[in-house]
């Protein structure tokens, strides 16, 4: 059985370079289940974004989540991909009924930007922004790393309707390195194809690319779709709207219904619920569990 829905880390100990490989299938299908995806091009962008989010989250030592948002004024309005430190993923996509363009820059349109947010349980959120001025998500992320991290970083991202896969190489910080080593590894990795990323397991792929190098591969880490929405989080969002806004909504309907855009879960708050959460937002619990599509 092929390695699916897992992340593999590896390291070139002699050259001060680390790498990651990821392939998503079941988790990808689950993440896309509640999204309206109009064509294969949009589907591929979401798949690549989810693979990239897993790779990026694994480069940072933290307990929390990496959130990647791509947005602009084009027909592809937004792509959001989130990966947590324990390898849980979710994502969403928003687009027009038809999306033209042959690459990310054309699809996302004027003013396109990529926002990376690191949410840590032990620190304030960190956010970085870069313009979408390259044709592919991998290239945009490489520009981000060059500007913000100042570490040589290369990504290769592939996705079709069924599978998303990614490969990342990055220099380790604070080590003396021979630039020729990085250039050689980068050149070898750049020969990778979508067919190989979809068909070969991590060990097979690394042997194909780097059979003359000494590579240490770590154990597989499972990746799965899981949405972290909850009634309590939705209640906090509603409470932030304020009493007058919530009462105005309830004058038009008997209750307030909120759907999670990531997983389709539905949360309903009647007038008594709203009064309770306004009086004490932190006390709102899962007394009325959500229904799902």
UniProtKB/TrEMBL annotation:
Disulfide bonds join 227-229, 260-263. Under oxidizing conditions two disulfide bonds are formed involving the reactive cysteines. Under reducing conditions zinc is bound to the reactive cysteines and the protein is inactive. SUPFAM superfamilies: Hsp33 domain, HSP33 redox switch-like. It comes from the Bacteria. It is found in: Cytoplasm. GO terms for molecular function: protein folding chaperone; unfolded protein binding. One of its GO terms (cellular component) is cytoplasm. The keyword Iron-sulfur does not apply. The keyword Zinc applies. Keywords: Chaperone, Cytoplasm, Disulfide bond, Redox-active center, Zinc. One of its GO terms (biological process) is protein refolding. CDD domains: Hsp33 (cd00498). PANTHER family: 33 KDA CHAPERONIN. Redox regulated molecular chaperone. Protects both thermally unfolding and oxidatively damaged proteins from irreversible aggregation. Plays an important role in the bacterial defense system toward oxidative stress. This is 33 kDa chaperonin.
């Amino acid at each position: 059985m092929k390695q699916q829905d897992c992340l593999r880390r590896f390291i070139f100990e002699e050259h001060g370079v680390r790498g990651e490989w990821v392939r998503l299938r079941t988790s990808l299908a689950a993440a896309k289940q509640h999204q309206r995806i109009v064509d294969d091009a949009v589907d591929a962008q979401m798949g690549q974004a989810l693979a990239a989010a897993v790779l990026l989250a694994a480069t940072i030592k933290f307990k929390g989540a990496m959130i990647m948002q791509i947005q602009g004024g084009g027909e592809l309005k937004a792509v959001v991909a989130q990966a947590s430190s324990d390898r849980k993923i979710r994502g969403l996509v928003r687009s027009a009924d038809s999306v033209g363009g042959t690459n990310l820059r054309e699809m996302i349109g004027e003013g396109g930007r990529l926002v990376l947010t690191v949410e840590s349980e032990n620190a304030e959120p960190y956010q970085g922004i870069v313009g979408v001025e390259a044709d592919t998500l991998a290239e945009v992320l490489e520009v981000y790393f060059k500007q913000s991290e100042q570490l040589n970083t290369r990504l290769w991202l592939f996705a079709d309707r069924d599978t998303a896969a990614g490969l990342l190489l990055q220099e380790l910080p604070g080590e003396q390195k021979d630039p020729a080593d990085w250039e050689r590894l980068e050149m070898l990795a750049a020969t990778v194809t979508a067919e190989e990323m979809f068909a070969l397991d991590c060990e097979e792929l690394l042997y194909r690319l780097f059979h003359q190098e000494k590579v240490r591969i770590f154990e597989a880490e499972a990746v799965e779709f899981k949405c972290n929405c909850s009634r309590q989080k939705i209640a906090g969002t509603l409470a932030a709207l304020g009493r007058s806004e919530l009462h105005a909504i309830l004058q038009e309907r008997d209750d307030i219904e909120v759907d999670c855009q990531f997983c389709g879960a539905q949360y309903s708050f009647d007038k008594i619920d709203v009064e309770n959460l306004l009086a004490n937002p932190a006390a709102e619990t899962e007394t009325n569990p959500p229904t799902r599509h």
